[in-house]
Amino acid sequence: MALDEYEKRDFRVVGKRMPRPDAIDKVTGRALYGADMHVPGMLVGKILRSPHAHARIKAIDTSAAEALEGVRAVVTGADFPEIAPGEARNVRDNAMARDKALYDGHAVAAVAATSAAIARKALKLIRVEYEILPHVTEISDAMKPDAPVVQEGFVQENVPEGFSDNVISYHQYGHGDLDAGFAQADKVITRRFRTAATHQGYIEPHAALASFGADGTADLWVCTQGHYYVRQLCAEILQMDQAQLRVTASEIGGGFGGKTTCFIEPVALMLSKKAGAPVKLVMTRQEVFRASGPTVSSEIEMRMGMTKDGRITAAEAELHYQGGAFPNITVQFGAMAAFACYDLQAVQTRGYNVLTNRPKQAAYRAPGAPMAIYAVESVVDELCQEFDLDPLEVRLKNAARKGTKASYGPTYPDIGLVATLEAAQAHPHYSAPLGPNQARGVACGFWFNFGGDTSVSLSVDFDGSITVTEGNPDIGGSRVSIAMMAAEELGVPYESVRAVVTDTASLGHNEVTDGSRVTFAVGLATIKAARAAKREMCRRAAKIWGIDEDAVIWEDGCAKPAGPNAGKFEPLSIKEIAAKSSRTGGPIAGHHEVNAEGAGVSFGVHIADVEVDPETGHTRVVRYTVFQDAGKAVHPDYVEGQMQGGAAQGIGWALNEEYIYDENGRLLNPGFLDYRIPVASDLPHIDAVILEIPNPGHPYGVRGVGETGIVPPLATLSNAVSRAIGRRMYELPMSPPRILKAIKGG
Amino acid sequence: MSKIHVKTRINGEAAEFLCEPDETLLEALRDRLHLTGTKEGCGSGDCGACSVTVNGRLVASCLMLAAEAEGAEIGTIEGLAKGAELDVLQRKFVEHAALQCGICTPGFLVASKALLEKNPDPTEEEVRYWLAGNLCRCTGYDKIIRAVLDAAAEMRRA
User: Fold this and answer.
1) DSSP string, A647-670
2) What's the CATH number of domain A297-450+598-743, 3.30.200.20, 3.10.450.50, 3.30.365.10, 1.10.3720.10?
3) Do B132 and A681 touch (CB under 8 A)?
4) pLDDT digits over A212-242, tens only?
5) Class of the domain covering A2-31+458-586
6) Model ipTM value
7) pLDDT single digits (tens) B140-149
8) What CA–CA distance (Å, rounded) separates A37 from A264?
9) Cβ neighbours of B129 in A, within 8 Å
């Protein structure tokens, strides 16, 4: 029963700011990330990439590279076995091109050599004969019936007619009578929006170290958000049993969704298999931009009707997303999330997924939602201006609440949007005075959150200390939260618990660290594992006392006799029970395996003050406040960190970040100098206000917090800039030239 | 081409290594000496993850040739703590939760140390501009800035 897990309680550990277990390693340089592992006999791998956006590979001659002294293996698409259609095949074809190079940067060959210098030299000796094909990188171009087709064979049956075969899937959500709804409005507006593709911008490039044994088993060390999924994909791609491939996740240097799949891992494994030696493969930053998984770009048409007192009567949106040369489901998430903040009687979203000659997109924090909600929140703001209404009042008037039927189907249980809006309204930021050329913007945001397959094992060690073994890479402080929940549930000091992330051979399956699922789902499984351990410790205490096990309860970290035996024996602590465990039946552990349901949706509201320089079009963010429902903030520092980090990424997306292609389909800015993410001097302090509306689906009320924070900034900034310059902005990023053009009426 | 023999001092101790003529100091630190606390985020001097000090000056080690380290005094993240005793900056980063994934943290610490040695009483704006060469994608910089200012205050009191 997913929605009746929550029980109100007074917390002893949860909610405090405990030291995280990996912090010392990370401030001293001891922590080992993807590229930090060295093993004896290790070779260096390098990848040759297509300089063309779309080209048939007529021939690849690797003989000169193979003949170079120090080269131990060369791999091309021909080395990978044929497999059934599906995501693993898409990942394989993205990791190494077969008959066509599908985008600038697509891998076409790889080498393993005894040094990086030899590997680089070998890449230059590989001769690839290309037949350059017409390419398409923009959404509207790719949808035209006569557009060059990126890949055949992906069009789903329900896609409406009239488009090229690049339009591969169609998704529709909503309810109610749109015509009747629009007829009730005092004003109906239709607006079109565009957002650029952006990159997650994690500071650690992808890295993998593969070691294939002659017996057909393999080990992979990799920076990833999900080593079990890496195992699943790579095992299918290399046609081996999952049990024969052990994947260990290194410390991860950021992911934000971008490390939820494979890019180089199958290549590292194939190089190691062919070379008969371990191979380390690390992407350069340029490779990360060109050939990992940025997010989608979008073109959105939004229509909304409002009464003059601020009631939204109907809304519809058509979303066109491109996510590169392979299928993805991001537009589906966008179509589901677009109107999730509102209680609407008539609503419809239609999403089209479009292939282009760009890299295969990957998830990026609340994938699909930021751009859809940017368009919705921009139109809401414009209508608020039209009727001279307070933008938070209007949002409160239309806000989704308990019992609202969401536009994507479900009826909400307890949710926190109204409380979050009220907190924003009451905050001093909302009424603070503004200076010249300054304006204030607000917007809401939403993310579904996720649970999924999760395994946890909790061991009561002989000295009474606790090891929690989990299988989700810790991307922002989850180990500390997991350890805190174990300590809370067992009634032991936090310091006696250690949470470790283990490899794929040591614990049951765990879904990827995504969907803001880890503190929710791994936390839930940890609490259940701790409860199993407590039941076992009560049994052991009963055995020691010689009483019935039903007559023992767990309280304050001790087993105590209860019922008719109450007070007859001194309570037994974990330490005492653990010390005797070998003599009372053996080691004590609890474990829990679950496909966790009941992940509570999370809402946020952002307020931004901006100052736009009318001479240069440059926007300075003067003040920024984030309000978000965390359900229960297990470790407030890291909840704030998620809210602040999401806001900063959203600010970059709104103001500056974009993938820029030239007329040949080549990426012009594959580096941090030209793809500029916010730096410390670009941002003010980002104040974070945590709301706690308990999630009924978690024993402690926890909701995921990782993703919602990137959703509101796009519209928050656009609304603020539009109000500051007196003209409405419809395209991201709002770079200075674009703002200057708007100011000058272009 | 034969390798170059380099004698240097790293974190106060003599060190020597052989390197290729075109090898960067970052590659030598990581791949020859296995001092992997210094990170590569971009290889082009844009992210600051590879920050070290050379003769007391803050340097992006991906932009310096290893051979240029001959006779120099190199400081890396591994030399910041005195044995088990953390530097005040390290302690403040932990206390303020100024890291999430932690990949940029060594670079931020080395750069912050260099700032506070030059300017023990920086304003928030000075800290933000000094650290503008260090990219962090997780935190939005908020807690990092607070940690550096708090470390500076504690160092001034000491």
Assistant:
1) HHHHHHHHHT----B-TTS-BS--
2) 3.30.365.10
3) yes
4) 999 999 999 999 999 999 999 999 999 999 9
5) alpha beta
6) 0.98
7) 999 999 999 9
8) 16
9) 680-681
